[in-house]
Structures are given as structure tokens and as C-alpha cells.
Amino acid sequence: MLPAAINAAATRVEVVASGKNYRAALFATGTMPALIALGAKIGNKSSIFPMLKHREGGKWFWPANDPTDDCSNITGLGELSANEPEVTIQLALTALPEGMEKAASDLGHKILMIRPEGDLTNGVLGHPEDALSFRQRIQELLHLLKDKHNVSKVHLMPCASNAACVCFGQAIDNYHPDILLYDFIDEAKTMEPRILISTTGNRCEIHTA
Length: 209
Hints:
The longest helix has 22 residues, at 128-149. This protein is an alpha/beta fold.
């Protein structure tokens, strides 16, 4: 049911935005795995750009007047060998819950952490240029994992804003590893897989995990 709903939503978004000569703003809400999958289906070749829903007040706006580029801190790459079939990525932009750390540890794969240098808040991606830089950095990271470390599957555990999730999904491209998306369960005590994203040829496919 969830993949079908995401596919339908992506199709509606693309139809509404098609034929326009301006960038379309996407006001997307939902679970983090669903938003990442929606971004993957929309892709990065269109002019569709997500808007940030700021949790403080629930308003749609970008809180920063200037970009900070504070979302590109990635740790753990130096621990990877040339052959790592599966890795875990913790996308900790708004928080680093114990349930995420437990789930990552239980999997037993090597762990990459993406988090800001500063505070973990909903407004970490606080400017549109930050969102674009983040998307580009994730695209480069996924290429690196596939090409240099032979990664075929990424276990992605997100705790991030709606805009960051959509941007991460839009970064997923051809020749990237499969992405297994996790969500919190049992009052955030741990996480379990929800959606699998794979790219076959020029197609992005999503499946229930």
C-alpha cells in the first residue's frame, strides 16, 4: 500500500509541475521513509524543490537568512574497506535517539554518521542553498560508496526534517546502492526497515521492506 501511495503522490506532483517555467515548491509531510521515497521518485532532474516545515510553530519557511553549509559532516568513511557490501548511515540532523544507535549497532555493519557541526535542530537545513548543497553531497557520497567501497545496500536510519528527507531522496540516482529505509518503532526504542529503494537502469523503484 505505501509504495503505491508514494508512486501516486509523485505522479500527481509531476503532473502539477509539468510545463511550468518556474521552480515548483513542494509542501510535503509524512513519515521520514515515505518522504525520502517520494524524493527519490521525483528525482533531481525536475524543478521541484521541497519547502521546510519548521517545527517551532509549524510554519513553512526557511529560518536562516544566509546558508551555513552545516550538514556535510560525514564520519566513518575512513573505516571502510574496498569491499563493504552493506553499510549503515545514521542521518542525525534533528536528533540522535538511542533507538537509532541501538538499531545501527544491532545490524553489525560499519556505520557512517551524517550530522551537523552545531546543534541538532529542525532548522539545520535552514536555507534553500543549504538544501541544494546537502543534496549534492549525498549524491556524491552514494556514488563514492558504490564505486570505491563496492557497497550494494545502504541501511538508512533518518532523524531529519521533511525538507532534508525529500532532498536525500532526490539525491538517489542511477548506479547508487539500494537504500533500505528505517523508521522508529516501540516509542522510538529501536528502528525497523520500511521501504526499499532500488534503481534499475533509468528507473527508481520502491518496495515494501
